[in-house]
Amino acid sequence: MNEKQRLESEQITTTHSSDVKSEVDENLDRLKNMSSDELISKYFQTTYEVPDLKKARSRRKKDVDIHYDFDIAEEFRGLGQGKKFLIRTYGCQMNAHDTEVMAGILMQMGYAPTEVTEEADIILLNTCAIRENAENKVFGEIGHLKPLKLEKPDLILGVCGCMSQEESVVNRILKKHPHIDLIFGTHNIHRLPNLVSEAQFSKEMVVEVWSKEGDIIENLPKARKGKIKAWVNIMYGCDKFCTYCIVPYTRGKERSRLPEDIIQEVRHLAAQGYKEITLLGQNVNAYGKDLDIDYRLGDLMDELRKIDIPRIRFTTSHPRDFDDHLIEVLAKGGNLVDHIHLPVQSGSSDILRVMARRYTREDYLELVRKIRAAIPNVTLTTDIIVGFPNETEEQFQETLSLVEEVGFEAAYTYIYSPREGTPSARWEDNVSMEEKKERLQRLNKLVNEKSAESMKNYVGKTVKVLVEGESKKDPDVLSGYTEKSKLVNFRAPKSVIGQIVEVKIVNAKTWTLDGELVEAAVEVN
Ligand code: SAH
Ligand code: SF4
Ligand code: F3S
């Protein structure tokens, strides 16, 4: 019997009761009478720890195990035959890329992708914990999915991603949302085949959240979204411990992939015809710090730029780890784009100190000066938090003046959101929400002005656009991004999708540009 026949002949049975409603109610009653400790000892199959700053800080640099032997056991292949999966992704590019990995694994198990919720046999919510509103969205979705689960008892509902690394979230799901079948953490993605299989055959919620964080799993399958742009993880985790941020707890310690593994992946993507690579890491320019060899992001970029791929970006860099060698390499240009996303968070040295960012306003401005000296045409964008605990009006003004001084062309702006388990969440805060919202509005007004100004400069100029597809608003219009990440809309035949073309800009809006096709297929480099 060949593999296909074997898969077709396999009968998948599940032990889910057909009367899932009474099962859910029963579960709920049992859960209500259990203490938190009982719940945890009952449901946690592996070690699970609350985000603990002291413990997290004592993480050791070494002890990173790299596994090259990922394989999906024979018993799990075919488990999804004739079935469909859907993954809802929240959060950053890292999460979006994890979704590609999970999709790759599920497809190797025989599942087919679907975008239609009602059609799915397995739905995973790949969650983000960065701010409260990100979490609220997920809890809203968990609630929305309940009727579907009642209708389709065999549906597997899973919660993964950063929220599942938080104890409070897991407890809340255990207590209030027993219709969820599976919870797994960011360190457990490679365990998906076992977990899905367990969830399919178990009556109880399957929870596997490892706080173990020292591993790198290579050779995971990836079902990449699209054939034009690709993400490549170069490192995982974050050791910066900014006082407001949950990421070091949800993603574990900094650990770099080996240069040869990254270079091989990028070469492979180039050979497949991808046009743009974004190197990913939570603190991407800490790359190499944990390796035994003296090799940093600058060295990696210097090797990658020789690969025949038109555009290479990286995100997100931390000002503190932006070294001179990296600047020197970026200045070589070529396929290394002249756009750097460099989160500043605040323009006040006092706020930066309590955020534990480990640089001052002056340090940041000095770094910007060095970058501009080496790459005169560089575009800088940033992230900013307003309303950090006890931020004064004067300190906020310093943020506004920094935005002016640097001339950021775009910024992601956020109201500070206290995250349980982080140091700043325990601090008193004398700034009202009303004040924070008002500051955000003022900041956004300035950021919009800066963006609009930078966009106006493009009118009459010709730019290279990597065409990604039809524009969201009008299928007759195509859209794509410039090297500096400006979104350009223009009319052209669909045959240019996936190519880099020259477009003359005729109109500028605050965040987008309108243009006319000058020439199809630009020679790159
Ligand atoms: N690793 C990246 C991105 C982290 S998350 C970096 O260090 O820059 C993306 C952005 O979310 C951060 O840059 C920060 O501006 C914002 N952010 C993180 N934690 C936050 C919190 N608790 N409240 C509000 N914004 C936050
Ligand atoms: Fe969070 Fe970024 Fe700071 Fe790391 S460097 S703790 S990811 S804000
Ligand atoms: Fe969110 Fe986790 Fe990314 S908290 S921003 S999905 S690393």
Automatic annotation (TrEMBL):
PROSITE patterns from the UniProt entry: MTTASE_N, MTTASE_RADICAL, RADICAL_SAM, TRAM
Binding annotation for [4Fe-4S] cluster 1: C92, C128, C162
Note accompanying the cofactor annotation: Binds 2 [4Fe-4S] clusters. One cluster is coordinated with 3 cysteines and an exchangeable S-adenosyl-L-methionine.
Needed co-factor(s): [4Fe-4S] cluster
A GO CC term attached to the entry: cytosol
TRAM domain: residues covered: 456-519
S-adenosyl-L-methionine recorded as keyword: yes
Catalytic activities: N(6)-dimethylallyladenosine(37) in tRNA + (sulfur carrier)-SH + AH2 + 2 S-adenosyl-L-methionine = 2-methylsulfanyl-N(6)-dimethylallyladenosine(37) in tRNA + (sulfur carrier)-H + 5'-deoxyadenosine + L-methionine + A + S-adenosyl-L-homocysteine + 2 H(+)
Residues of the signal peptide: none
One term of GO molecular function: metal ion binding
Subcellular location: Cytoplasm
SUPFAM superfamilies: Radical SAM enzymes
Enzyme class: transferase
Record-linked InterPro entries: Elp3/MiaA/NifB-like_rSAM, Methylthiotransferase, Methylthiotransferase_CS, Methylthiotransferase_N, Methylthiotransferase_N_sf, MiaB_methiolase, rSAM, rSAM_horseshoe
Positions that bind [4Fe-4S] cluster 2: C238, C242, C245
Keyword terms of this UniProt record: 4Fe-4S, Cytoplasm, Iron, Iron-sulfur, Metal-binding, S-adenosyl-L-methionine, Transferase, tRNA processing
Disordered: annotated segments: 1-26
Keyword Repeat annotated: no
EC number of this enzyme: 2.8.4.3
Biological role: Catalyzes the methylthiolation of N6-(dimethylallyl)adenosine (i(6)A), leading to the formation of 2-methylthio-N6-(dimethylallyl)adenosine (ms(2)i(6)A) at position 37 in tRNAs that read codons beginning with uridine.
Designated name of the protein: tRNA-2-methylthio-N(6)-dimethylallyladenosine synthase
Organism: Gracilibacillus halotolerans
Gene: miaB
